[in-house]
């Protein structure tokens, strides 16, 4: 088994969501700049404050632009998942890398979700519920997500049946010993 990548449309979705974030950051910064400019005005000594404000705003905007241009291709390379017969592995992260292994026997149920920003791009998320946590394989095409969900649910059902059969066998073995 080898690791699979998320859908290529994820890069476009990540860029779009970051553009929305950029707008949400830029509007308050612009309003603050106008407010500061008109309240402080051009008093003596206020030029340094205005220049410092513009530098801080420019740095924030530069960081947001880097997130739009540079991060999506890196994220795409870093996100990977593998579904093996006995486990699911998920690798993700740019600065803080995680590698999660979920045994099939620990899965309680699986669901497919689709966020507001995922829907226009035809993307979905597979949620894998265990007793202690919910893991996600994000930014999959909806068809792939539904297929994974179906396959995992079948594997979980097989594991449950095997466990029931083993418990029944153990109980009948114990009963025959008496």
Architecture overview:
The chain has 178 residues and is α+β, with helices and mostly antiparallel strands. Helices cover 56% and strands 23% of the residues. The chain has 4 helices and 7 strands. Strands 1-2-3-4 form a 4-stranded antiparallel sheet. The protein has a 3-stranded antiparallel sheet with strand order 5-6-7, with helices on one face.
Topology diagram in text:
Blueprint: E1 4-5, H1 9-40, H2 46-69, H3 71-78, E2 80-83, E3 87-92, E4 98-103, E5 107-113, E6 123-130, E7 134-141, H4 142-177
Antiparallel strand pairs: 1-2, 2-3, 3-4, 5-6, 6-7
Helix pairs in contact: 1-2, 1-3
Q: List the helices and strands in order.
A: EHHHEEEEEEH
Low-confidence stretches: none
Distance between the termini: 46 Å
Strand order of the largest sheet: 1-2-3-4
Mean pLDDT, as a whole number?
A: 88
**Helix content bin:** 55-70%
Let me know the largest β-sheet: 4 strands, antiparallel
Number of strands: 7
The tally of helices reads 4
Cα-atom radius of gyration: 25 Å
How would you describe the shape?
elongated
- Backbone structural class: alpha+beta
Q: Assess the beta-strand content as a share of residues.
A: 15-25%
How would you sum up this structure in a few lines?
With 178 residues, the protein is of the alpha+beta class.
List key phrases describing it.
178 residues; alpha+beta; 4-stranded antiparallel sheet; 3-stranded antiparallel sheet; 7 strands; 56% helix
